[in-house]
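Ticket #4471: structure export looks truncated?
Reporter: QA, pipeline team
Priority: medium

Steps to reproduce: submit the single chain below to the structure queue and open the exported record.
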Amino acid sequence: MLCLRLVEDSTWLLQILLSAFLAILFLQSGIDKVADRRGNLEFLQGHFAKSPLAGMVPLLVTVVTVLEIVSGALSAIGCVIIILTRDPTAAFYGAVISAISIVALFFGQRMAKDYAGAAVLVPYFLLTLIAIYLLAH
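Actual output as written to the record:
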C-alpha cells in the first residue's frame, strides 16, 4: 500500500510524475518537428539566418528531433517500468538525454542571440537535473 509518509513512496511518485512530464514534453516536441518539418525548418532558418549556424539548420533540426524523440520515448517507457517494477533505469537515461537536448536547444538560442528564448529553457533544464538526481540509483 502506498504511504506517502515514507521517503521511498514519495520518491517513487516523484519519479513517475517527472518521467511522465518529460515524456509528454519531448514526445510532443519531437513529433511536431517530424509532422511539420517544413514549417519548423522555415521558421528556424529565419531564426538562425544571422548566426554562425545558418548553413547547418536542417542537420541541427534532425539531431534535436532525434534527441527529443529518444528522450521522450525513454521517459515514457521508464515511467511505465517505474510504475510496474519501481526500476528507474530507463527513465534515468531519458532524463539524461532530455538534459542534453535542452543544452543543445540552449546553445542554439544563444547562438541566435535569442536571449529570452534561452532563458525560457532554464526551468526545464533545472527540472531535468532534479529528475536525474531522483532517478539515479
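Status: closed, not a bug. The export was complete when the record was re-opened. Leaving a note from the reviewer for reference: Residues 47 and 109 are 9 Å apart (CA to CA).
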